[in-house]
């Protein structure tokens, strides 16, 4: 379980996140939406301990994240940031192998290799496994990083705009994979999305953030409404219903 209690983050006099109070539902896919600068990425980075929180507490399975040993935290929680850079001459498979490092320390077992192969297959990378990562397109590299996170096989997966650079086909496949991880394997996934319709299609719950604070939160069907989205984005969004699901028209 992840619990966020009155968490704030500031840089100098600029408050990026202000007193966020948020329980995160277990074994659900929770999407974070909102305009640029809302604090979504900063919040995920604090939950994963990539950056420290200035005030408040963040609990992971009833222990404050500050108290977790790094190697144990890496077995429990994985995060993919917006920007990643590994300046090494390695193959796709070697990159995905890094996801098993908290367990294998570089000496992969049969189980480690099986999880790497599953991750490569789920992200459509089996045919590219021996390619060098510096030869990949932006979308292929993004999928490789996501495969590395999936291979880590943690209870909690945090993804910061993972659909960047992905074409429609792979974006859909990736969201379907995430739903499978939640529905069949009981993973808890927190994901920052700019495309509201991916959140509407795949998320169990949506957290809307604006100006560093929680603007609204709730089950997806209760969040995809004009009264929530229009003031969130300061624009007029048309809500349509297709096959029992609500979608947004904002072009």
Automatic annotation (TrEMBL):
It is found in: Cell membrane. GO terms for molecular function: ATP binding. PROSITE patterns: ABC_TRANSPORTER_2. InterPro entries: AAA+_ATPase, ABC_transporter-like_ATP-bd, Siderophore_ABC-ATPase. Keywords: ATP-binding, Cell membrane, Ion transport, Iron, Iron transport, Membrane, Nucleotide-binding, Transport. Its main location: membrane. This is ATP-binding cassette domain-containing protein. It comes from Enterococcus alishanensis.
């Amino acid at each position: 379980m992840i619990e966020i209690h009155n968490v704030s983050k500031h840089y100098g006099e600029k408050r990026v996140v202000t007193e966020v109070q948020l329980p995160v539902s277990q074994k659900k896919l929770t999407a974070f939406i909102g305009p640029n600068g809302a604090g979504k990425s900063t919040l995920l980075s604090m939950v994963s301990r990539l950056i420290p929180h200035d005030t408040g507490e963040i609990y992971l399975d009833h222990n404050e994240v500050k108290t977790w040993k790094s190697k144990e935290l890496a077995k429990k929680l994985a995060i993919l940031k917006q920007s990643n850079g590994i300046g090494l001459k390695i193959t796709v498979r070697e990159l995905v192998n890094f996801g098993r490092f908290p367990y294998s320390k570089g000496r992969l077992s049969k189980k480690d290799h099986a999880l790497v192969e599953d991750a490569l297959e789920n992200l459509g990378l089996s045919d590219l496994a021996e390619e060098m990562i510096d030869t990949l397109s932006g979308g292929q590299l993004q999928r490789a990083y996501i495969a590395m996170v999936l291979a880590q096989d943690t209870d909690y997966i945090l993804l910061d705009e993972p659909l960047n650079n992905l074409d429609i086909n792979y974006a859909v496949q990736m969201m379907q994979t995430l739903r499978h991880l939640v529905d069949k394997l009981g993973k808890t996934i927190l994901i920052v999305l700019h495309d509201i319709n991916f959140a509407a299609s795949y998320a169990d719950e949506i957290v809307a953030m604006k100006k560093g604070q929680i603007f609204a939160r709730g089950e997806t069907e209760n969040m995809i409404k004009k009264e929530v989205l229009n003031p969130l984005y300061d624009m007029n969004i048309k809500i349509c219903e297709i096959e029992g699901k609500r979608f947004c028209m904002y072009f």
